[in-house]
Specification:
Radius of gyration: 14 Å
Mean pLDDT: 84
Structural class: alpha+beta
Number of strands: 4
Helix content: 40-55%
Shape: globular
Number of helices: 6
Length: 109
Amino acid sequence: MIMTEEQAITWDIRAIYSPEIFEQWLNAMTKRKAVFVELMHIKDYDGKSNLVLSVYCAETQEELEESDPEFWFSYNVLENEFWSFVAAAANSPVTFDTEFFFEQLYLRG
């Protein structure tokens, strides 16, 4: 599904159900707002490990540093499709936190 920039900006984030829509949304939003994406390893409330891709948006970089995630994607929910959302974020012009990847390389090296 190809959307215009205006359609992407006004898209309800609760309906971002495909990596293609997510990437179009990110591309449109970064032209108007500061956007930051972070991949984190967390422990769920039941103690199970999970990967979460969090998306932050704000009017300015300063506001972005103080904001909570607009929404997030969970590996435990999406399973293998999760990596398509990570790839969409990596292919977009957003600021992407790579600290998690480097930590994993260090721990395995």
